[in-house]
Amino acid sequence: MSIFRAPNVRAGFYLSVFLLLVSLYVQTPSARAQDAAAEADEVVRVSTDLITVPVAVFDSRGRRVAGLSRDAFELRDEGRRVELSYFAAGTDRVALTFLLDASGSAREIIARQRETALALFTQFGAGSRVAVLHFRERTELALPFTADLTSARAAFDIRAERDRRTALFDAALEAVRQHDADERNQTERRIVILLSDGLDTASTVRAASVIAEARRRGVTFYVIHLPLFTPRDGRLAARQPTKGFRELAEQTGGQLFTVGDARAALDPRAAYDLAPVFNAIAADLRGQYMLGYYAGEQERARLRHRFDVRLTAQRGRDLRVRLLREGYVFKGGKQE
Fold first, then answer.
1. pLDDT digits over 257-268, tens only?
2. Kind plus residue range of the DSSP H or E element containing 311
3. Contact 220/214 with Cβ under 8 angstroms?
4. pTM flag (> 0.90)
5. Pairing mode, if any, of strands 50-58 and 288-294?
6. Contact 220, 203 (CB under 8 A)
């Protein structure tokens, strides 16, 4: 009897081992997925701990200075020197938002400049993204951030509607806050290109509030003014933009460009070429730097932080640094 029982015992043992291995094999994909998710969470956590500070450097004539290296910069957080963990010169990675005035004559000019505008995006490195917003009285997200230029082209087609009130600064604030949804991309340069006639008749926020939010998030505005012209003293004169329109660019580290004149305004066939403007923007961005460091316990213990960036002694005699992000706030364990 025992001679016949032994094989049965062995068979049961082998069958149990086989079933256990099958069970482990079936569970492995799920376990691997959980491990991958944990690793992804860790990557996000580390990435959001990186504090980034975009800066520009100017010479004594006010010209941007490119070509500086990491050791040319000294970064302090609330007066305490911190070690640079990240450094990038130029704009390899950019989050580029086109904020397009959908009211009045600006709409037609913008539609004709679509390819010229998107050519700017192609000058930036892999990982760059583009988004498009339209605004009249309300802001419309025509295209969330993407690298797909085909979708971006379609987003430049603005439907014609009767003239309404325009909330320019509300739209600018919405463009700034687009970055709140994605905290992982701390090392990208955040750029808003605003194309508008500069008139605001309906905003609920002031330019100063938009500028403060932009500086806190490291967002820079480049403003392209497409002025409207009205009769004045027997001739056509450009209407002055709403107060704060120019400051959106000047106080966030960007530039203001004015395109068009009275003669072009009278000519329905006038051609606008924005290529020189976009080339100037690209050149300006190449003269910027991104500094970064990881927040330690001392940084996390404080709520508000202000930066100070200096050039080393041998470099900084005739140069000055302009911060494009003055500080940040730790709230709920995250930087804002």
1. 998 765 666 555
2. strand 304-311
3. yes
4. no
5. antiparallel
6. no
Burial group, residue 319, by CB count within 10 angstroms (0-12, 13-18, 19+): middle
d(CA 167, CA 207): 11
Spatial contact of 102 and 135, defined as CB atoms under 8 Å apart: yes
Cβ–Cβ < 8 Å for 86, 291: yes
Strands 304-311 and 327-331: antiparallel
For residues 1 and 4, give the distance between their C-alpha atoms in angstroms, rounded to a whole number.
5
- The tens digit of pLDDT for each residue in 199-252 reads 999 999 999 999 999 988 889 999 999 887 777 777 777 788 999 999 999 999
Give the strand pairing for 129-135 and 94-101. parallel
Tokens, residue 30: 């799920």
Rg of the Cα trace of the chain? Answer: 27
Question: CA-CA distance, 242 to 3, in Å (whole number)?
Answer: 100
